Amino acid sequence: MEKRIEALLDNGFVSSVYFTGKTDEMKERILSLDKDYVVVTDENTFTYSPSPERTVVLESGEDHKNWESLERILSFALDRGMGRDGIFIALGGGVVCDMTALASALYMRGAGLMLCPTTLLAMVDATLGGKAAIDFRNTKNTVGAFHPASEIIISLSTLSSLPDKEFMCGMGEVVKHAFLSSDDELYKFLFSNRDGIMARDTAVLEKMVELSLLVKKSYIEKDPTETKGIRSALNFGHTFGHALESITDYSISHGEAVVWGMKKALTSGLWQGITPPPFYLWCIDLISQFPFLDEYKVAKKDYEAFVEATKKDKKKSGGVTKFVFLKGLGEPILSPLTDDQIAAMIV
Amino acid sequence: MEKRIEALLDNGFVSSVYFTGKTDEMKERILSLDKDYVVVTDENTFTYSPSPERTVVLESGEDHKNWESLERILSFALDRGMGRDGIFIALGGGVVCDMTALASALYMRGAGLMLCPTTLLAMVDATLGGKAAIDFRNTKNTVGAFHPASEIIISLSTLSSLPDKEFMCGMGEVVKHAFLSSDDELYKFLFSNRDGIMARDTAVLEKMVELSLLVKKSYIEKDPTETKGIRSALNFGHTFGHALESITDYSISHGEAVVWGMKKALTSGLWQGITPPPFYLWCIDLISQFPFLDEYKVAKKDYEAFVEATKKDKKKSGGVTKFVFLKGLGEPILSPLTDDQIAAMIV
Fold first, then answer.
1. B37 to chain A: which residues are within 8 Å by CB?
2. How many CB pairs under 8 A join A and B?
3. How far apart are CA A6 and CA A288, in angstroms?
4. What is the interface pTM, i.e. ipTM, of the complex?
5. Mean pLDDT across the stretch A254-280?
6. Quick check: A131 and B109 CB within 8 A?
């Protein structure tokens, strides 16, 4: 197990990211903890837990990313008599990581947190940065907090059994990071390692996840709690994407929705003269290297619901939702769209 | 309306405390806000709200300090389409303040917060310091966060209609602050203004609340999120007190329980040689100036439940609950007690 990334957040708090090719090393690390802990998994990841008697097993899926699941985690810790110096350990995908982080944030006003992501999406999207949340009334992550993990363990071998759809879901966020990076290292890496990535070559994936997290680190260190308008850039593709997830009742995966949303944001940026045509083509070129969701047409009867869904976005300020557009590589800007402009994009 | 106290917390965040004798000034301040806002009251404080159409009215009492109430606040804000730049305004006692603060902490991972306490307890205990919480499975404030208010408006006139029991509840925390202060100004003030306090003289109460909040400020500024063992001192009397509240199903008020708990902690400190006899007597002398709850004997059948309740305390570390004892004025120390020692104190 090797420490590769350290992100320095508010108040000198450090999130450390360790990489390992072996799930056993992750288990050993958990068993070696000198504090009380509770492991949170779902039905799919229960087998990764090294201590079944300390494990809460949640029902799988975004449908269960709610208060009831959170209550189960909190109750389990309370029944164990765990103190606020105890550690909540997430062992699963993004839903498990987000909910465990929120349980840890709320338990006695803040307990310890370790994240062991088992999906590509969770590795690149739900670890560094401290975002904790549950869904609320069909709106994603409306109820949450910032509560970073002190330790993040990325065990690449968990990806070998990941279904293709889940894998591509994570790739959506990786591609997003390639566009938000201040250099083209990740972009080039993705282009030249396309086959290794799709074959799930562990060494290739490890480098890819590391490069992706380094991009994320650069944004969150400058703006740990998303109050300075810097970190919001990580929501590129997400306002369109979240609205699509919402109107399709989350039948479309997050990563697919985000790729779809990035295309919408790129096209919309192009029309407005924000995104230069060569950069637009350069981005679309990378997206087209990977088998992402084909075009999705929003049905006319859903236009209004779609526009309404964008208005619930958390990046709203003064009643107006801001979308993220790209002026170039690593050059995001936030700007609003009218209802008609939004509708025109989803026809 | 006059700003009297500024507390400097983590990341340069400032909580400002304003005092006013007139409820109308508080209402005017709310109406002058240039951001979207939601007012939270309970059935008793609804009339203080200057904008009924923006007001959530919760059921009154500690019984409703739960997720269901929190959900109502969050839903109301979501239905209004309020953004994360909006402000949650608590207008009520400690329960309303604590829940509004938690709703604000969780809404889109953190919205604005203004607290307008209408009870003495809320003024001195639930404003400065950012503690947000709900009760969870009969354990007080087990689920919560630190989320300080930018603006706190103390309108003393709201105290004139406060029932005696509620008033004395707040006095418990004021007396606690007198013992935790680094000087004897508040202690002397309470002694020499006993009659003015009990007659609810507004000028006297204003000074008393200000002195009390200055003590609290000195602790929270040094340890905003209770991670350094300094702020925990504010829990003097609370481990015994919370356990009493828990086994009596919250039929005893918080302040009364805390005074009872302080007596237990003082006596226990005396027995252990931590609290010097003259200081013990000096403290008991002040408590006896005010009509607090008489001695409460825990029934023998409840000993075990009481001891168990102390083990759910949030100050637990390494599986051991630490109680706050006093070596002298403003000299708290944290130390554990055995189950037998606890039982011996409550006979």
1. none
2. 102
3. 32
4. 0.90
5. 94
6. yes
